[in-house]
Protein 1
Amino acid sequence: MRFAAGSLPGVPRRRDVLPVRRPLRRLTQLTMLFATADERSGAPIACTTSRTAAGATMPTAIADSDVLLVVDVQNDFCPGGKLAVPHGDEVVAPINRLAGRFRHVVLTQDWHPPGHRSFASSHPGKRPFETVAVDYGQQILWPDHCVQGTTGAEFHEGLQVPNAELVLRKGFRPTIDSYSALYENDRETPTGLAGYLRERGLRRIFIAGLAFDFCVRYSAEDAHREGLDVVVIDDACRSIDVDGSMAATRQVLATLGIRCISRAAVA
Ligand code: VGL
Ligand code: ZN
C-alpha cells in the first residue's frame, strides 16, 4: 500500500488546516534538490532553501527565540533496537554538536505503556507494519518499542544535550499513538508543547532526530499549523521508510513550504 501525502495511516487528514502567512523574505525561495538523509533510498529530498540573487546559499543564523527539537533519539530507534531506524544512530553526533549552539533545546521521548494500542502484539493475528482502523483513522502497527522504563526507551547513550530545558514524553495514553511532539494522532489532543513554546516566546523551531517520516514529519506539520516558523535539519534525521512514507514526507514538507536545510546551513 502506498500513502498519499497527508494521509499516512495513524493520522487522519485534517480538514481545518489553514495556510499560515509567512513573512515576506527578501531572499528568493527556491525549491532545491538535496542529498537524501536516508542512505537506503538514494532518492533526493526535495527541499526549500533560501538563496541570494547571486545564487549563494544563505546560512540560517540561530536566534535567541529559536528552539531545537530533538525527536526520539532513543535506543529502540537505533540499530539493535526494537523499531530500529536504518542508520538511526548516525544522528547522535550531529545533534550533540548542533544542540550546543542553541539557547533552547527540547527533547522528546516516545514513552508507551506495555500493551499500547499501536503495538501489533496488542492485536491478535496482526503483524508489525500492518494497519488497523482505530477511532482516529488508520494506525500502523509497530513492534513493541519504547516501553516505559525499559532500556529501549532510554535516550541513546551517546546523546549529550545537557542544556535541554524540557524532556517531553509522548505516546503514554494506552489507546492513542502520538507521532507529533505537539498533538497526539487524533491531531486534537495537545501534548502541551505548543503552549510551552508560546509562553516561552519561542517562535521558530528547528527539528532533528528520528524518524524523519513519522515523528519529525508530524511535529513539523503541527508546528507549522500552530504558526511557528519550522525548519527541518534533514541530515540530522533518518527515516523508517514504510510504504513510501519518506517520499510522502518530502512532498508534504515541500507543499507546506517547510524548509529542509542541512546542518552546514545552520550558522
Ligand atoms: C515513531 C513510530 C512509532 C517515531 C514512534 O519516533 O518516528 N515512529 N513510534
Ligand atoms: Zn512509538
Note: Residues 212-225 form the longest helix (14 residues).
Protein 2
Amino acid sequence: MSELSFKDKVVVITGAGGGLGKHYSLEYAKRGAKVVVNDLGGSLGGQGGDAKAADIVVNEIRAAGGIAVADYNNVLDGAKIIETAVKNFGTVHIVINNAGILRDASFKKITDKEFQLVLDVHLNGAFQVTKAAWPYFRKQEYGRIINTSSPAGLYGNFGQSNYSSAKSALIGFAETLAKEGEKYNIKANVIAPLAKSRMTETILPPPVLEKLSPQKVAPLVLYLTHDSNEVSGQIFEVAAGFYAQIRWERSGGVLFRPDETFTAEAVAKRFDEILNFDDSAKPELLKNQHPFMLNSYGELISAAKQLPKNDLSGAPS
Ligand code: NAI
C-alpha cells in the first residue's frame, strides 16, 4: 500500500505542545501537511500559559524539513486559531480537537468552577474551533474532524464527573457533525485513547505506561482523517497498539401497551426482559430508535417513512 500522504493538507491540532497532540503534529508534518501547532502551554489543571510548548514542536518539525506554525491561543478563542491557519496556509482541512485539562474531584467535593472549567476547555473549546473551521469545510467541500473523548467519557470514572461529562458530550457533538457534514464531504470521528502523557504518568504504574506510548495512537488519527477513509460519526478506542470500534447497542426491548399493564409494576415485572441483549440492535440514526414501536403501530410506521434521511428537523440548507 502506498504511503498515506497529507501533502498540502492544512491541519489544526489543539493542545499540540505535548503529549498526544505533539506526536500527531510530527506525524502529519512528516507526511507533507502544513500544521498549526496550537497550545497555550498551561499546567495540567489549565493554569498559566507559555509559548514554549508550541514553539518546541514547531522547531522540531521545521528542523526535519516540515511546515508548521505555532499558535498560542486558548481553544475558547477558536476563531483566532483558525485565523492562524488561514493567514499562514490559506484554509483548513483537518481539525484535531485534542486540547484538554484535568480538575479531578469526587462529586461530593467538586466545585462549580472545577466542573465548568473542564467542560469549557474540552467541549466549548472543541465547539469554538470547529465552528470557525466549518464555513471553510463547507465551501471547499472537504473537512475532517477528530474529537478526543476518553474511556472516562464512555464508561465514567471515579473523580471525573466533569471530565467524563465533557468527554461523552464530544461524542454526541461528532455524531451530529457527521450527519450535518455528510453532503459537504465533512467527516467527524471520535477517539477514546489511553496513552502515556502528563495526564496519566502520575496515575498509571511505570510498566503499564511503558506500553502506552502516544506514537501508538497517532496512526488511527491519521488514517481517520485521510482521504481514503470513508467512515464518519464513529467512535474508536485506542491504546497500546489496540484499535477497536465502539458502538451503541440497544436491548431487544419490551413493548408495553397502553392498557391496564402500562404501570410501574409492569415495568418491575418485565425489567429483566428490558435488560436482555439476546435480540439486540445497533442503532445509528435517530429514526432507528424505536423499531419495536414502529413495527407495532401502523401510524408510526407511516410517520417514520416521512422523516428526512437523517431525521433532522430544521436541517441546514
Ligand atoms: P497533555 O496534557 O500532554 O496535552 C494536553 C495539551 O492541551 C497540553 O499541552 C495543554 O497545554 C493543552 N491545553 C490545555 N488547555 C488548553 C486550552 N484551553 N487551549 C489550548 N491548549 C490547551 O495530555 P494528553 O494526554 O496528550 O491529552 C490529549 C487529549 O487526550 C486530551 O483531550 C485528553 O483529555 C485526552 N485523553 C488522554 C488520555 C491519556 O491517556 N493520555 C486518555 C483519554 C483522553
Note: The pocket of NAI is lined by residues 14-15, 17-21, 38-42, 44, 46, 53, 74-75, 98-101, 121, 125, 148, 150, 193-195, 197-200 (CB under 6 Å).
Protein 3
Amino acid sequence: TARTHGWTGTRILTVANQKGGVGKTTSTVNIAAAMAEAGLRVLVVDMDPQGNASTALSIPHQSGTTGIYDVLIDGVPLEEVVRESPHVPGLLGAPATIDLAGAEIELVPLVAREHRLRRALDVYLSSRAEGDEIDLVLIDCPPSLGLLTVNAFVAAREVLIPIQCEYYALEGLSQLLKNVELIQQHLNAELEVSTILLTMYDARTRLSADVAAQVREYFGPRVLRAAIPRSVRISEAPSHGETVITYDPTSTGALSYVEAAAEMRQLQEVSA
Ligand code: ADP
Ligand code: MG
C-alpha cells in the first residue's frame, strides 16, 4: 500500500491548552478524521470528562459505559474500551464518561499515577497485529493542567496547542509551556511542543491577524500555515455525531482541517 505519512511506528500527540473553548476537541476529532480519510489508522483518546470528542465520533459514552476512567483507575485494558467511529473507517476512539471527573482525585493515591495512560497505551499499541498498527494517536485533554493532562503529557511525544485567534489568546500560554518543561524535566524527557494550530481565525478582523502574527513570531515554523476559520459547519457537526470532515466535506472548515492534517504529515517527513 502507498505510504501516506512520513514516519514509522506510532506518532502520539497530546492536544492541550488549559483554556476551555479554544478548539482542542474540535481540532482533535477533525484532524483525526482527516488523517483517517488519508488512509492512516488513528486512535483518539478522550481524556475530558465532558466526553465531547466521544460525542463527535459517535462513540457511546453515557455513564456506565466502560471507558478511559476504567483504564486509568481499574487497569482495564485499553483494547476493551476502544470502538470504531461509525462514520470514518480506520478512526478509533476510547470514550470518556462523566466518571472521569472523579479520576483527578482518585488517581492521587495510586501507584504510578502519572504513567497510567502511557502504560495502557504501550500495551495496546504493541499488541496490535502486524499490518494493523496504529499510525497516530491524538489525546484530547480537559481544560486544566491536573493529573489527567499530566497522564496525557507522559503518554505522548508531541504536544499540539490550539490557539484561538482572540483577545487574551496568549494569556496562560506561558503557564502551559512551563508545565510542559516540568514534564520534560521530571516525567517525559522526549516531550516537545511540535505543532501550533490557529483556530477560529476571522480573516476580516485585525485582531485575528495580530494574534496570528504574534503566535507565528514566537513559535516560528511550528505554527501550521493552515489556520482554521470560524465556521458554523464546524460547530454544527458534533450535534450530528460527526466531524465536519464527513458532515460537510467541501466546507471551508473541513478543507482547512484537511490542509492542517496534510501539513502535519509533511512536517514529519522533513524532520525525520
Ligand atoms: P475546547 O475543547 O478547547 O474546550 P471546543 O473544540 O469544544 O474547545 O470548541 C469550543 C466551542 O467552539 C464548541 O462549541 C465548538 O463547536 C466551537 N468551535 C470550535 N472551533 C470552531 C470553529 N473553527 N468555528 C466555529 N466554532 C468552533
Ligand atoms: Mg474539549
Note: Residues 20-26, 52, 143, 199-200, 228, 230-231, 234-235, 253 surround adenosine-5'-diphosphate (ligand 1) (CB under 6 Å).
Protein 4
Amino acid sequence: MEVKKICCIGAGYVGGPTCSVIAYKCPDIIVTVVDLNKDRINAWNSKDLPIYEPGLQEIVEERRGKNLFFSTNIDDAIISADLIFISVNTPTKTYGVGKGRAADLKYVESCARHIAEVATGFKIVVEKSTVPVRAAASISNILSSNTKSNSSFQVLSNPEFLAEGTAVTNLIDPDRVLIGGETSVEGQAAIEALSNVYSKWVARDRIIKTNTWSSELSKLAANAFLAQRISSINSMSAICEATGADVTEVANAVGRDSRIGNKFLQASIGFGGSCFQKDVLNLVYLCEALNLPEVANYWQQVIEINNYQRRRFANQIIGSLYNTVYGKQIALLGFAFKKDTGDTRESSAIYVAKYLMDEGAHLKIFDPKVPRKQIITELQHPTITDCPEKARELIEVSGDPYTACAGSHAIAVCTEWDQFKLLDFKKIYDSMLKPAFVFDGRGILPHQKLLDIGFKVSVIGKHRENGGMFKSASSNNILLPSSRVLP
Ligand code: NAI
C-alpha cells in the first residue's frame, strides 16, 4: 500500500520535528500532527513554535498549511490517515509498581484505545515513542481486542534516534532508520510501506528492518550505550582531577582508537534530558522483571555515576568557596540540558542548583533559550524542594549573562552554549566579588585567558591541586586545600 496521509499523535519534541521533516521531504503526503494540549497546537500554528530546534522554524513555515497541519481534532486525523504515529510521552512511572524505574505507558495505551475506537478501514500504527520491549504486542492486543468489523491494523516499531539540538539535521540525514514489524506477509508489507516513506530521502541501505522486539530493544540499548559513554568519561574525570591527568587529553588519546571513536567523550556535569535516565531506568526495570539482576546492576551504575558527577560538581563549588555558600551569590550560566535547546527536562543544572540552594546559596540564572517561568517551575518542583517559597527567594533569573554574573562570588557553567565562550570576561571579572571563581562544568571556556584576568578557575576533569583549582603553569591562582569532605 502507498501511504498518502499520516497522522501523528503527540506534538512534542519528537512528533513535531519528525513530522515536519516528513512533510518537507514528502510534499505528496498530507501530515497532520495532533495533540490533546491546545496551547501546544496553537504554538505550532504560530510564529513562536513550542520548541526550539535550529532549522525547524523554516521547515514548518515552508510546509504548514500546505501538507503539514497541527490540530486538536484527533478523531478526524485518525480516521483519514493511512498510517498513525504514536509519539506521546512515556515518562518514568511516579506511582505504583515500578515507581521511579518502569516506563509509564498510560498515554500510549490511551492512544491505542482511542485509535481502536474511532478508526475505520486498514491502518498502520507505528510506535514512535520509546517503550519497553514487547510494548508493540500490547498495542496489537488492545487494537485486536477492540477492533470493529470494518477496521484492521498492523503495528510497527519505528523508534526515533534524533538528538535534541540537532533534530532537524538528524532527521534529514539520519545514521539509520529502524523499522521493526511482524514476520508475517502483512507485517512485511507494512514495513515496506513505511520504508517507502523514508526512502523518499533516506538511502535504502540506511533503513534497517528487524523484528519488532529487536527494534524496541535497540532503542533502549542505543540510549543506554550513549549514557554509558558519558558516565565512563565522567568517571575518568574524577580520576583526572585526583591525579594530574587531563580528561581532554585522555578523551583524545582514547577516542583516537578507531574501535572506540571520539564522539560522546566530553566530560561534563552529567547527562540530562528526558530520555537517557528514563530509558536506562526502563532497561534496568526490564532486566529485573526478566530476573537478570546482574545485568540490571550493571546498567544501574550508569545512573549512579551520573548522580555522583552532579553532586561532585556542586561539592567542588561549595568546597572551593571556603566550604560555605550560605548567602553567597552564584551565577549559573546555562540551564537547558544541552546547548541549542530550551529543554530542561532532567537537566543537570537543576540538580546543581538544588544542591547549592540546599546550602543557602542565592542563584542568578541565565539561559539563552529557557524562559524564566520554566526555570522557576523546575526549581520549585516537589522533587527538588520541599519549600517552594524558600526556593523562590533564592532564585533570580537574569536576562543576560553579565547581569547574572555581576555581584556574584562565582560562576558555574552548566550548559555548553557557544555564546559563553565569547563573553567579555574582563568586564565580568570587574563586576564580581573577589576572589572571583569560575567553575566550568562543560570545559568550554578559554581557561588560560580567565586565569590571566585573575579568575580562580576550576574545570571538570582537570587536575585540582591544593583543594580544587585547575593549575596553569603561569598561574598562582591556587586555592587552599578544603578542610571538609562534603557528603
Ligand atoms: P513530549 O512530552 O514533548 O510530547 C508528547 C506529547 O504527547 C505532549 O504534547 C502530550 O500532550 C501529547 N499526548 C500525550 N497523550 C496524548 C494523547 N492521548 N493524545 C494526544 N496527545 C497526547 O515528549 P517527546 O520528547 O516528544 O517524547 C515522545 C516520545 O519519544 C517518548 O517516548 C520519548 O522517550 C521518545 N523520544 C524522545 C526524544 C527526545 O529527544 N525528546 C528522542 C527520541 C525518542
Note: The chain is about 40% helix and 15% strand.
